[in-house]
Structures are given as C-alpha cells and as structure tokens.
Amino acid sequence: MITKYLGRFGYANAKVQTIPDANDETKEVALTISVSPGKRVYVRRIKFVGNFGTSDEVLRRELRQFEGSTLSNNLLEMSKTLIQRLKYIESVDFSTVELPGEDDQVDVVFKVKEQASGAFQAGISYGDYTGLAFNTSIQQENFLGTGNSIGIGLNTWKAQQTISLNYTDNYFTDDGVALGGQIAYSNYDASKVNLVTYSRKTVSIGPTLSWPVMENNRVSVGVAFKDIEISSLQPYDQIKRFAEAFIDPSNPDAKYDFESVEANIGWSRNTLNRGVFPSDGSSQYYGFKVSVPGSDVEYFKFNFDSKFYFPLSNDHKWTLLTRFEANYGNGYGTLNGSDQMLPFWENMQQRSNDLRGFESNTIGPRGIQREAQSLVGFA
C-alpha cells in the first residue's frame, strides 16, 4: 500500500521494509517500517503499439499521464480506462521501459487491441409486430482513424419509414468539446402499432454541443428544428383537448403542420470499464428538453436512465445488469385561453421488447372513441 501510494507521486522505485522486534516477555512485537522512496521517476516518452487504424493523436488525447511529468500509477490506470472506453478499442495494457544509464527516466508503452469501429447492416425480416421490414445502416465510430463518428441509416417497416444522417467531431476543441449534428426524416402510421389512429411526417435538423465537466461527467446542449405534419387523426377521447385546440372538427381529414424549436440539455456520468460490452461500472443520464416559447406546441420532458454492471466472476465473463428508467412530460403556457398539453405523439410508450408476453403499446388505457346516438321514446 505504501509503495502504491508513493507511486502516485513519481516514486516508482520506492522500497519498503518491515523490521520486526519481538519481546518474549510481553508477547508483543514492535514493527519498524523503513521507507526508502528513492529518486522521482519522470516519463521521457509515451508510445502506442497495435493501433493500425487509429492515429496516435486520437489515443494521446485520452492520456492523463504526460511526457516530461512525474510517473504516476494512478494517472496511468486512468489513461488506460479512458482509452479502453473508446468504442473502437477492445483492450489496453501498458508497461514501463527503463532507459540504459538513467535511473530517473522511463518510457511508457501502451499496447492497444483495436476492434471493428464500423458497422454495416442490411437485412430483410418479417415479424407479427413489424411485418415485412427492410433496413440498411452504416455507422463508423472512428471515421478515417480520426475518432470522429458518422452514420447514415434507412429503415422501413409496416408502420414507419426513416432516413437519418449524423456526424460528431468528438474533439472539436483540444479540451474535449464535441460538436455534432443530425438530420432526419420519418413517416409514421400509428394505427398499425396499437396506438391512436393518425399519420405523422417529421423533418428534423439540429446541432449538439457537449463538454467534460469532470473526469467521468459530461454536459450536452442542443437545438432541434422540427416540422411535423399530422393527418388522418381520429377523435379519441384521450386527445380531445388537444384536438379542440388545433384540429378543425368540420374537416377531420385535413393536414396540420406544427413547427417547433426544441432546446435540450443533458448530463451524463460514465464509469464503465469498456465502451462496448461493459462488465463493470455504471452509467447515468439526465435529460431535459423543452419547445421554446413561440413554438406551435409548447411542452417539456424529463428523462432519467441508469445502468449498473456488477461482475459476478473475477474474469468478468458473468455480469449482472440492473437498469432504471423514468420519464415525465407536460405542456406549459396557454393557447386560446386553455392550458397547453403534451402533444400525444410525445407520449411515453412501452417498447416492443420491454415486457415479455405483450405486444408493443398494448399495456395501458385503451383509446375511447364516442359515437353519437339518437334515442327514440314515447312520452
């Protein structure tokens, strides 16, 4: 423990010796601990091996141990963890190399093992819930070895057709500020997935900026410009208030456009041991988004997602995952003298694989549609 503690401050060759002095009469032993810290050791050079598809700069910017500074076992372990969290790195190890004729300088060698940084998916499938589905996507987490990510996706199934393009520069500035953006289009028919009958076309575009605030924490802010077209809306009781504010009852087949600007802010914490298939650590995300005043619909949403990974064996081949998720949303402000409400297409919904034995969107209240009836009686 003492040598490990001294190693944090550059004393890599510290020697600790325990000298016992036994007293036979009192049956006690006095321990004298002799500590010889030796010279402070400095790092001359840091090298990387095994990074055939990733530039040195991408790995070097994750380092917390620097060249020319004192050698610290804490900073080396932290650097190893940060590099290993990159989605295109499978494993990391490091070693120190003593220099001939120098007792206070070493080189540090990081040996990395890369894994596939890109994913190409294309497929055709059929299921009771999705029907006939086609999907194609390309996601590259280490574009041209720069550490930046880019992706494009095309997906179509019985209820939805989407196309999206995203790009993120993970080190837009040298101090770790990331800048990204996404543009997407989707066409959604809710009647085919056990929801209120309506169709929705959405076009969205927006940038996102994030930066580190502590070693394992990041804050993100973003803006999204959305244009949403709603059509074929059936007058269910659950959306009556919303329909009365926006929908023309004399023309239920009309199309309605909603333009909004969404501002979002998020905070994430990550102590996972790996970026892909983690086996130890945790991750938490708090998010808040709000449509800015002046948007056609004014609302806000909170969400929280937490995951904990507990290794059940020393080799981390068996891991227990626990997860907690919570969401809340509502409208704010007034429209035509009535309180705004959360748009029905922003409602939280059960995903298709959340609860075994139930189809997606079948848990919860059913849609109620009232029909006018006439009563005939005799006085």
From TrEMBL:
Residues 41-115 form the POTRA domain. One of its GO terms (cellular component) is Bam protein complex. The keyword Repeat applies. Keywords: Cell outer membrane, Membrane, Repeat, Signal, Transmembrane, Transmembrane beta strand. GO terms for biological process: Gram-negative-bacterium-type cell outer membrane assembly; protein insertion into membrane. This is Outer membrane protein assembly factor BamA. It comes from the Bacteria.
